[in-house]
Amino acid sequence: MSHFDDLQKKIESKTAHVGIVGLGYVGLPLAVEFAAAGFTVTGIDIDAKKIAALNRGESYIQDIPTSVLAPLVKSGKLKATTDFSAAATMDTINICVPTPLRKTKDPDMSYIVNACQEIAKYFHPGVLVILESTTYPGTTNELMLPMFERPGLKVGEDFFLCFSPERVDPGNVNFQTRNIPKVVGGITAACTKIGAVFYQQALETVIPVGSTRVAEMVKLLENTFRMINIGLVNEMAMLCDRMGIDVWEVIDAASTKPFGFMPFYPGPGLGGHCIPIDPFYLSWKTKQAGIEARFIELAGYINGNMPHFVVDKIQNALNDCAKPLKGSRVHLMGVAYKRGIDDVRESPALDIIHLLGKRGASVTFSDPFVPQLHADGVVPEMAAIDADKGAAEADCVVIVTDHKDFDYARIVERSKLIVDTRNALKGNTSDKIVRL
Ligand SMILES: NC(=O)c1ccc[n+]([C@@H]2O[C@H](COP(=O)([O-])OP(=O)(O)OC[C@H]3O[C@@H](n4cnc5c(N)ncnc54)[C@H](O)[C@@H]3O)[C@@H](O)[C@H]2O)c1
Fold first, then answer.
1. If you count Cβ atoms within 10 Å of the first and of the last residue's Cβ in the chain, which end, N or C, has fewer?
2. Backbone angles phi, psi at 370, to 5 degrees
3. How far does the centroid of ligand 1 lie from the alpha carbon of residue 384, in Å?
4. Whole-angstrom Cα distance, residue 142 to residue 135?
C-alpha cells in the first residue's frame, strides 16, 4: 500500500495519531476539535506550565471551557508533552507556533524553524505536516520543505506537506474552529488531497487550493484587507475630527447602502497577534521581489499613529477643563486589544499608557478580563482596579476597549470627563463625553 493510501485509511478510520505543535490560541482549539472528533491527539509545547495545565484538564484559553477540555483529557483522547520524541509516532503534525515581527518589522521565523528542527529529528515516512502559523508566501516550500526532504523521503509520495491558514477569531461566539471554513494547499496535489481529507474529519467546510503559496497568500489578503480598511477609517476619523464632523454618524449612514460598502470602525489603534503584524510579512516578502506594498506601509503608519491621536485628544480635553495632563490621573476602561477577550498582545492600551506616562500623567485601569498587566518595557507592572473607583477618582476616563461587561451609564455618572475611542457611549448626549 502506498503511504498516501495508508495515511488516508488511518485518517478516515480516525486511528491516525494527531499531533499539534504549539498549544496557544490556535493550537489548543484545534487539538480539542480533533480529540472531540475521536482522534487520539498529543500536543507538544515548550511552555511547561501549559502542558501541566492541559494534562490536569484545565483550560488556559478563554474560548475553550474546562468543561469541554477535561473529559477529553480524562478519556485519554488528549494529552500534551514538552518532549518532541512524541512526534516519532504521529501520523499528522499541525504546527501552530507564533510568528511575530522583529523590532525591525522583519518576520521572526525562529519559532517555525525551531519546531521544524525538532520534528525533523523524529521524521518518518507516511507523515502529514501542516503549517498553520501565519507567514509570508513561500515559507512552506522554501523554508520547511528542505528541512524534511532527503534521499528516500520524497514529498507527495513518502510524506505530505501543506499550509492551512488559521482564521480563528478569539471571543467570537458564532464562528469557532469547527465552523470556520478551512483553506488548505499542499506542495503537490496529493499533499492537498490528504490535507483536505484530514480537516474534513473534524471541521465543517474545507476549501482545497492549488498550492501552499496560494494558501499562505489567502491569509495575508484577509488580514491586509482588514488592516487597510481600518487604516482608511482611522484616517477618516482624523479628517472628520479636524473638520468637526461626527465620523460615527457618517459610518452609520454610509452603512445603509445595501451594496458596495462594508463598515469598518475607527479606534485607538490595532491590536492582537494578527492584524498589526501579518501584513508586514507580506511587505517584507514583496520587497525581495522588488515591489513595494505601499497600501500596507501607509495603513501601518496611520494605525500606528492612533494611540498618539488618542493621547492628544485626552490632553486637549483636559486643557479645555483647565487641567494640564501632567499630574492628572487618567483611568483606562479596558486594556485588552478588543471586546470580550483577555489578550493584551499589541494592544493600543499599552502604547496609550506609555505615552500618558511620558507626558507626566498617572494611569490606572479596569478590565474584567485582565486582572494584571505585566511589565514589558512599555508598561510598568499594574493591577486592575474597580471600575467605579477608577472612574470617580480620575480626571479623565478613557474607553479603550468596549467590553460589554462595563456599566456605561454608571461610568458616565461617576466620571468628570470621558474620552470614548469606541463609540461605546453611542446615543448618550452628556457633555462630559469627547468622542474619537
Ligand atoms: N490568535 C489568533 O487569533 C490567531 C488567528 C489566526 C492565526 N494566528 C496565527 O497562529 C499562530 C499561532 O498564534 P497563537 O495566537 O496561537 O500564538 P500563542 O502564542 O497563543 O501560541 C503559540 C504556542 O506555541 C508555543 N511554542 C513556541 N515555540 C514553540 C516550539 N518551538 N515548539 C513548540 N511550541 C512552541 C508557545 O509556547 C505557545 O504556547 C501565529 O502564526 C498567529 O499569527 C493567530
1. N
2. -125, 100
3. 26
4. 12
d(CA 5, CA 133): 27
Q: Which three cell numbers stand for residue 229?
A: 480598511
Ligand 1: centre distance to CA 132 (Å)? 9
Please, what is the angle between helix 212-243 and helix 278-288, to 10°?
A: 110
For a pocket test of ligand 1, which of 20, 23, 25, 109 has the largest count of ligand atoms closer than 8 A to its C-beta?
25
Instruction: Determine the 3-state secondary structure of 4 from DSSP.
Output: helix
pLDDT digits (tens, 9 = 90+) for 135-152: 999 999 999 999 999 999
- In this structure, are residues 43 and 54 in contact, taking their beta carbons and an 8 Å threshold? yes
Burial of 165 (0-12, 13-18, 19+ CB in 10 A): buried
Strands 396-399 and 329-333: parallel
**DSSP state, 127?**
-
Model confidence pLDDT, tens digit, residues 204-248: 999 999 999 999 999 999 999 999 999 999 999 999 999 999 999
**Centroid of ligand 1 to alpha carbon of 379 (angstroms):** 23
Q: Cell digits for 399?
A: 474607553
